[in-house]
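Quick one, T. Sequence first:
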Amino acid sequence: MTTLNTSSVIVIGAGIGGIATAAHLAQQGVHVTVLEKNGRPGGRCDRFVRDGHCFDAGPTLFVMPLLYEAEFAALGVSMHDVLDLQRVDPTYHLVFDDNSRLNLTSDMKRLQEQLESIEAGSFQGLLRYLNEGHRHYHLAMEKLVNRDFRTATDFFSLGNVPLLFQLKPLAKHYDNMSNYFDHPRLKAAFTFQDVYMGLSPFAAPATFSMMPYTELAHGVWYPRGGMYRIVEALVAIAEAAGVEFVYDTAVTQIAVNGATVKGVMLEDGRFLQADAVVANADLPYVYQNLLPTNGTAQKMERKRYSCSVISFFWGVDKPYPQLPPHTLFLADDYRENFDSIINELGLPVNPSLYIHAPARLDAAMAPAGADTVIAIVPVGHLDEDGQQDWRVIRDQARQSVFKRLAGLGIHDLEAHIKFEVNYTPLSWRKRYNLVKGATHGLGHNLTQLGYMRPHNRDAQYHNLYFVGASTHPGTGVPTALVSARLTATRLLEERGY
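Structure tokens:
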């Protein structure tokens, strides 16, 4: 057996999954080098600071805390020792087209009063829905998320047949809501979370009722310092285990010989040898750009991709205390919104959108007397013929945000913007090598989940592994941590460590 201290693994990409995989491997004595094309770690869980304004450029919601807790524990660290978490309640302030509101809260009495004012008897429907969500959450964690499906029989087994009935994977999430609510606004209020997976609730499996459940039962949280604190905590764990991070270093090719990966070629012409390579870059990008053509890249092109978003990052010269931490504007033409995004790859006429004001939770996120505002507008991913005019679409999205804010009585935000940074699907593709600018990687439709999602080891190259959003179990920060543990465990087993 190769001694541990002479074994070397290269990780391509310092996203959440790449950092955590490297940490797991290094803690077992493997020498790990992480190569990152950008100047800092984090991948899509990125951050930038300008004129004292701090922006989380990717995820802004800390959800599924039990999963985080378990994955930090697997790295030998208490989550609560490295993250200063505060619970956000109400989790969201939902605003509808007539500017009526619904504040989602774990205070069941307050929630009951609000729901009953919209639809009589709906609170009992919510309790039944949350009971279903509880079942879906715990079954999915045990049977799907935390399992590594290496063979078809691991997934398509007699033991898993009951999941067809217990998890409702064949039912559409929005259609399933008719069992609990009649009012379309309540159906929207408890299915919009599907966009976390880049999915339409009209296509998502009803399994995803587990997301509203975990938000109300386990809470939505905020790490003081922003979501990037997760990245910093993971890097510290990895570096303590001996991981070497190399930034501003792009990989242009994964070098292979037969069925074996030999190492990687860098943009500056250097070759780095490795016993194994873990790709944390977007998986379709790896097949299309870093590996020899073998048909898999074409298969990836035919898969379904998640939607994208246009993000606006505004430094504002006055505070807006009336803006809560998380405001979600839900359009009444809910189905048309998702049809425009998923089917037409565009921007809805009246888009649903999200606004984050982090300074409501952490005053250090904005200078004194100022505010930091992030607006996120879901849009379609890049089309194949490049016909989308993202400058026009971006400007339309911006005006949609201002229009929504005016409904809250905020008419002057545009006049008080000191600076704007914005990301379109083109930005996501350029900065993070996301194929089609799809912010959540491959879609999470039924035929791209579990064993049917790309695996964490390549079928042809036995020492090439994958981690991240487009591999099992899927997108999101906590699931990236699970992906990292599963990938590291498999690599250690198969490489004989």
